[in-house]
Design a protein that fits this description.
Molybdenum Cofactor Biosythetic Enzyme, Chain A, alpha/beta, globular
């Protein structure tokens, strides 16, 4: 892994789908392995806990576990938190995190994401959010932030001075509404690291692009995805995300012709017998659609039985969700026809389908087909080598973005 020529290596954990205990065990093992490999190769690494831009996930559990493992080789001064994600419409200013919904910026604590059945919260101000999630271990007054005013003035010295004062794994919020804000912060951050400061990062996707020096590429088109020509077989779409944005995108997708819809009845996962029957039914419907020459869209029923799983950090809800995803994965494993493309909508859905269903061990990120929507080129070890696999987050895009992705793949 460390001999790879690329600057950034992304290790897919799908930890948001795991229970707290499994997440803790996985992160302990992951950091132990990273430390061991780094020691063997004589290299250093920066560890970024890549998280959800709408603040859902096992926080502070994940970074606390990472911290406890990393500090065995030296103290970690602070945790830098950057949920800014330009392509997804996630902005932070005056320490408040916002989600862009159509043309309105909504404080994140007022969105449906804050009402998540497992990872819900109340605060929109990130200082208050940290206090809430750490249950007072880090109070509002303890949390430091880098304001936009300092970034826009390019006050590198002022930002550096703040970073040099951070200790005891305290938290630092970075306000950002544009990539330029992150680039200016990175100058001060680099100087602080060169002076011996050590930080752990909890960020959304945009920071990874900046710190990795990844230059933006033009959006992918059909000719880039299929340099030897697109196969004649139909494509396959899986929709597991149940957020309102996804439901709105499904309605726009329905405007396209030559598309067969197959509903995955989530109530059928409650017993192994009914789950097996539902898997067989969905496989039959996909085959029928393919035989008719139609792209097929398999989607989970929109009523997600949240009424049964309202307790915060409910492992029961996570287990229920994972069984749905496992069922979708089984469908992929049993496919006898290689689709011309595969779109998976939803973070947990796309991860499980990729790793468990397609048996992906290593994939190259080709770029983005639309802002915030990456495409993997699957490796030779996968179930369908060379297949364009579109990773479509549930909370990203405009109402017509899913429709536009399919139009591009059909061009």
């Amino acid at each position: 892994m460390v001999k790879d020529k690329h600057k950034v290596i992304y290790i897919l954990t799908n930890s948001r789908a795991l229970t707290s205990n499994k997440t803790q065990s996985l992160h302990k093992r992951l950091v132990k392995d990273l430390r061991q490999v780094a020691a063997e190769e004589g290299i250093k690494f920066l560890l970024i806990s890549r998280s959800d831009s709408t603040l859902r996930g096992h926080y502070p559990l994940e970074t606390s576990v990472i911290y406890n493992e990393l500090k065995k080789e030296g103290e970690i001064d602070g945790e830098i938190i950057i949920p800014f994600f330009l392509e997804g419409g996630r902005f932070t200013f005056s320490d408040i995190h916002y989600v862009k919904e159509r043309d309105i910026l909504v404080p994140v604590g007022q969105t449906e994401f804050a009402r998540d059945a497992v990872f819900g919260y109340k605060a929109s101000n990130l200082k208050e959010w940290i206090e809430e999630k750490t249950e007072g271990q880090f109070s509002v007054n303890q949390v430091t932030s880098i304001p936009l005013k300092m970034l826009r003035k390019q006050d590198i010295k002022g930002i550096l001075d703040i970073l040099l004062e951070i200790k005891n794994f305290n938290k630092i919020i970075i306000n950002a509404v544009d990539y330029t804000d992150l680039k200016i912060f990175l100058v001060a951050l680099s100087k602080s690291i060169n002076r011996g400061k050590k930080f752990l990062f909890r960020t959304a996707a945009s920071f990874v692009q900046v710190i990795g020096g990844i230059n933006p590429k033009p959006l992918l088109r059909k000719k880039t995805l299929y340099p030897k020509g697109k196969p004649s077989t139909p494509g396959l779409i899986f929709i597991g995300s149940y957020v309102q944005k996804t439901t709105q995108q499904m309605k726009k997708l329905a405007e396209l012709s030559n598309l067969k819809w197959v509903e995955w009845d989530v109530s059928q996962v409650r017993t192994q017998k009914t789950l097996s029957a539902e898997i067989d039914r969905v496989k039959f419907e996909i085959k029928k659609g393919f035989n008719l020459g139609k792209d097929v869209c398999v989607y989970t029923s929109r009523e997600y039985y949240k009424k049964d799983f309202q307790n915060k950090n409910s492992d029961k809800y996570l287990i229920f969700s994972s069984r749905i995803s496992e069922g979708l994965t089984k469908v992929i494993k049993d496919l006898t026809i290689k689709p011309s493309f595969l779109v998976a909508k939803g973070g947990i859905t796309s991860s499980d389908i990729g790793v468990k269903g397609l048996n992906v061990k290593r994939a190259m990120a080709m770029g983005q087909i639309q802002p915030g929507i990456p495409v993997w080129k699957l490796g030779s070890e996968s179930r369908f080598p060379g297949l364009p696999y579109i990773i479509f987050p549930g909370n990203v895009g405009k109402d017509d973005t899913l429709k536009r992705v399919i139009e591009i793949l059909r061009e």
